């Protein structure tokens, strides 16, 4: 069984991820069940795997308008119906989860998937996990720092002695099971916070940047901070990985893509449950502007999406691109079609152009 997609090609890794959002279809008003949403996510992963994409991810939310609260369980189900695609959380809210339990869950996933498990760790955009799991929101950053440092120790050692401020101490504790491979690849997900990028560099973790709007060039200093901090911490440049993530919609022509995607984009950002700084209602005229050639929104023909990915690669030199497609109540047939287009029309060109 193949376990490393990049063994078949060089160049940028291309993948997709889902948050399992449950939103009404903007055309019909229909809302699907959580059960159907999870079934669609598993089917999307199968399509991505069979089409030759490299990575599939699921995010974590703890609220009724999202279907995924337990990424390791969803990814374990996916591992049994796929053969080669890497499986990652996108993201794990690390400051509200016990690092030992997280490690054991993903080590189990790694065994079930023959070494395909990864984690993108983030600090979370919503407060629900802190309320549900009894974590102090006022210690938002301190909890993340302690948990990620403990996770890295768990990743490195079968037995561990450790003490911290927010979790009970470990005394020669056996950490079981061990992953299929030596360790579980860890990325840190960031928005525009240079301190988060510096943390990823200091720890030698991968850097996954979320860019959903605006000029992507404003994130170049984030990548520079990451690489400089990692270099100063003694990490080799070839060991550092950068991923860019964003919303993607591909259709036959640039205008058709904009016409088709606009209702889903509006439905997603107009959701009153979004954090207040994200809740907005774009006019169609403004939407045309935010999908322009110099922006971060990957909406257009396959050629337009290719050009945007390559333009960002010139800025960041990143090794991975992850597309979020299933937003705003988009029906699954459109999601499936977009995954196929990404895999067959976009990925081969991007890989060829970024091949070293």
From TrEMBL:
Recorded GO CC terms: cytosol
Keyword tRNA processing: no
InterPro entries (UniProt xref): Bact_Lucif_Oxidored (IPR050766), Luciferase-like_dom (IPR011251), Luciferase-like_sf (IPR036661)
SUPFAM superfamilies: Bacterial luciferase-like (SSF51679)
GO molecular function: monooxygenase activity; oxidoreductase activity, acting on paired donors, with incorporation or reduction of molecular oxygen
Domain of life according to the entry: Bacteria
Short name of any one Pfam family annotated for the protein: Bac_luciferase
Domain Luciferase-like residues, every copy: 12-318
Keyword Transmembrane helix: no
The entry's keywords: Monooxygenase, Oxidoreductase
UniProt cross-references to PANTHER family, sorted A to Z: BLR5498 PROTEIN (PTHR30137:SF8), LUCIFERASE-LIKE MONOOXYGENASE (PTHR30137)
Protein's name in the database: Luciferase-like domain-containing protein
Species for this entry: Heyndrickxia sporothermodurans
Top-level taxonomy: Bacteria, Bacillati, Bacillota, Bacilli, Bacillales
């Amino acid at each position: 069984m193949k376990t490393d997609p990049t063994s078949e090609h060089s160049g940028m890794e291309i993948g997709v991820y889902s948050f399992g959002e449950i939103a009404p279809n903007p055309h019909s008003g229909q809302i699907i069940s959580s059960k159907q949403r999870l079934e669609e996510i598993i089917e999307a992963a199968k399509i991505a795997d069979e089409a030759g994409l490299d990575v599939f991810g699921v995010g974590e939310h703890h609220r009724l308008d999202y279907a995924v609260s337990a990424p390791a369980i969803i990814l374990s189900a996916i591992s049994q119906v796929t053969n080669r695609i890497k499986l990652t959380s996108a993201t794990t809210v690390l400051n509200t989860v016990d690092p030992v339990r997280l490690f054991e869950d993903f080590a189990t996933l790694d065994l079930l998937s023959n070494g395909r498990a990864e984690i993108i760790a983030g600090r979370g955009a919503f407060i629900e996990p802190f309320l549900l799991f009894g974590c102090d929101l006022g210690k938002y950053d301190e909890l993340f720092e302690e948990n990620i440092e403990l996770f890295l120790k768990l990743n490195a050692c079968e037995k561990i002695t450790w003490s911290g401020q927010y979790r009970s101490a470990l005394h020669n504790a056996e950490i079981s099971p061990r992953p299929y491979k030596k360790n579980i690849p860890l990325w840190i997900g960031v928005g525009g916070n240079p301190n988060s990028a510096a943390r990823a560099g200091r720890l030698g973790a991968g850097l996954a940047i979320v860019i959903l709007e605006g000029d992507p060039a404003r994130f170049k200093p984030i990548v520079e901070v990451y690489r400089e901090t990692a270099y100063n911490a003694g990490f080799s440049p070839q060991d550092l990985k950068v991923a860019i993530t964003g919303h993607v919609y591909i259709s036959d022509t640039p205008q058709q893509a904009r016409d088709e995607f606009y209702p889903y984009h509006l439905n997603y950002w107009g959701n009153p449950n979004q954090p207040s700084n994200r809740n907005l209602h774009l006019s169609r005229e403004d939407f045309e502007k935010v999908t322009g050639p110099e922006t971060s929104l990957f909406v257009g023909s396959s050629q337009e999406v290719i050009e945007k990915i390559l333009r960002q690669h010139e800025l960041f030199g990143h090794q991975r691109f992850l597309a979020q497609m299933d937003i705003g109540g988009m029906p699954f047939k459109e999601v499936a079609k977009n995954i196929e287009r990404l895999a067959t029309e976009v990925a081969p060109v991007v890989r060829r152009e970024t091949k070293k």
